[in-house]
Backbone:
């Protein structure tokens, strides 16, 4: 059964984990992240765990054993603000020199597959709903300008785009089980529903304004000058005065079958170059949706052909990764939701 509220997750979490031990949804998210982390550790996965959460996890287990029917609505943890509710104001960023993607990694490892994402699995899990909320809250609080190095900032924005896309789709599915991102004129990409770097952002603002350094594409041209300047400043934090990295096209996942695959791990600053190359090579050697003798995806040939002009055009760029690809033909982009069956 698919539930809905605040992208279909918080109501389940409240019902599944009542009690005074959960004094806030944020702390509940941290406790439940601990549960997921300990679960992976029990399976032999090596993950560093903060000592500060170990005692709270023990307290959570003890409190859960004591929790009874007397724990009513008065003990229900409040819904977190910021990214949990579309339309709320952006939070001021917190200066940290790196971002911990371990919680996001747990979500990806559990629900992402090579060509699909298990949205229904997240919607049916109170624990993982809280875990994803923990990810969104962390992204809202982070200040990528304080990160050490351009790779850390690029990894942040790629992970942020992908996490926001998953969360937005989950919210949509809570209201419309047959949802696909092309519904309502692709409005999911224009809606400013999440916060990061102290700004309320749409997916297009991240993809085009930051990662493509194009703050005037589509509806972005209607943004006020200050907002566009903020986006360009964030883009300079990633690229400086250089051109943007076209491989972001193969790292961003738009929740559609035609998209490049969502990795089962976060993008990591220390491995970003390798990960981007793997994503690019993988997509451009996928004859069904990427590139091959039957053509090249509309992602390159129709949506963003100009992005590849500095490489001699789409055909020349693709040839570096797949000499057999025929860029004179087009592979139709499939906008069906990339939900696991």
Residues:
């Amino acid at each position: 059964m698919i539930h809905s509220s605040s992208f279909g997750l918080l109501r389940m979490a409240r019902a599944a984990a009542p009690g005074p031990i959960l004094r806030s949804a944020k702390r509940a998210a941290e406790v439940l992240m601990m549960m997921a982390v300990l679960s992976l550790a029990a399976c032999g996965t090596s993950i560093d765990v903060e000592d500060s959460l170990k005692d709270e996890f023990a307290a959570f287990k003890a409190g859960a054993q004591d929790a009874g029917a007397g724990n009513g609505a008065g003990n229900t943890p409040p819904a977190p603000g910021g990214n949990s509710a579309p339309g709320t104001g952006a939070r001021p960023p917190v200066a940290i020199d790196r971002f911990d993607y371990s919680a996001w990694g747990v979500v990806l490892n559990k629900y992402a597959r090579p060509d699909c994402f298990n949205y229904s699995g997240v919607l049916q899990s109170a624990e993982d709903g809280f875990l994803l909320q923990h990810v969104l809250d962390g992204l809202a609080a982070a200040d990528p300008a304080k990160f050490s190095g351009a790779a850390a900032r690029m990894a942040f924005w790629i992970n942020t785009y992908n996490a926001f896309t998953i969360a937005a789709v989950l919210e949509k599915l809570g209201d419309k089980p047959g949802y696909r991102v092309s519904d309502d004129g692709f409005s999911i990409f224009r809606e400013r529903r999440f916060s990061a770097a102290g700004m309320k952002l749409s997916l297009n603002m991240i993809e085009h304004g930051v990662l493509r350094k194009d703050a005037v594409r589509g509806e972005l041209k209607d943004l006020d000058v200050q907002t566009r300047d903020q986006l360009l400043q964030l883009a300079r934090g990633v690229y400086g005065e250089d051109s943007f990295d076209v491989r972001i096209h193969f790292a961003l996942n738009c929740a559609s079958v035609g998209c490049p695959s969502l990795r089962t791990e976060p993008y990591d600053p220390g491995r970003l170059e390798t990960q981007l190359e793997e994503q690019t090579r993988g997509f451009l050697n996928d004859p069904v949706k990427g590139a091959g003798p039957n053509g090249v995806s509309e992602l390159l040939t129709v949506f963003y052909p100009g992005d590849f002009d500095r490489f001699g055009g789409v055909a020349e760029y693709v040839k570096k990764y797949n000499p057999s690809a025929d860029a004179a033909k087009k592979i139709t982009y499939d906008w069906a939701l990339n939900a696991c069956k």
